[in-house]
Amino acid sequence: MDPNTILKGILLGLSIAAPMGPISMVCIRSTLSGGRGAGYAAGFGVATADACYGVIAGLGVTAASSFLLQYLDFIRLCGGIFLCYLGLSTFFRKTTQSIESSEQHLLGSFASTFLLTLANPMTIVSFASIFAATGFTVPNSGGTQIMGLVSGVFLGSALWWILLSMGVSLFRKTLLSPYSLRLINRLSAVILIGFGIWTLLQITR
C-alpha cells in the first residue's frame, strides 16, 4: 500500500470525525462515566462504521449504495428513534447506574456508536463524492489503493476519538462528582434528543 494513500485516508478520517455532533456527545459521556476504556470502545465503533461505508463507496458497490439510499427514510426513522431513546434513557438514568453500565459493558459502548453512525447513510454519499473527486475508484486506482485509503480513514477516525477520550479523561476526576455527572448527563441527553428530533424531521413526506 502506498504510504501517501494511507496518509490521505488518515486526514480524511480526521476531517470526517472531528465535527461535533451526537456521536461526540456519546463518546464524551462514555469517557466521563466509564473511563478511557469506554471512550475508546465508543470511538472504535464510529471508526469501524466509517470504514464500512468507506469500503462501499470506494469499491463502488452500487447495489449497496442504492439500497441505502432507497431506504433512507426508514434508516433515518430508526436512527432518530434510537437517538431519542438514548437521550431519554440518559436523562432519567441514575448517576451510579450510568457509571456501572459504562464500566461493565464496553461492547455496548462500541455497538451504540457503531449503529448510530450506520444510521446516517449520507456518510456514504460524502465518501463517494470525495473518492470521485480524488479519483479513488476501483477502475482508476484498483482495490489495493482503495483499501489503503479506507485503512487510513479508519486510523484517522480512531485517532480522533482516542485523542478526544484522552482529553476528556484528564477532567474526569474533577467532573466525577454526582452533581457534575448528572449535569453532564442531562446536557448530553438534551443534545441527543435534539439531534434525534432533527433526524426525524428530515424524513421526506
Automatic annotation (TrEMBL):
The chain crosses the membrane at residues 6-28, 40-68, 74-92, 113-134, 146-171, 183-201. Keywords: Cell membrane, Membrane, Transmembrane, Transmembrane helix. It is found in: Cell membrane. GO terms for molecular function: amino acid transmembrane transporter activity. InterPro entries: LeuE-type (IPR001123). It comes from the Bacteria. One of its GO terms (cellular component) is plasma membrane. It comes from Paenibacillus anaericanus. It is a multi-pass membrane protein. Its main location: membrane. This is LysE family translocator.
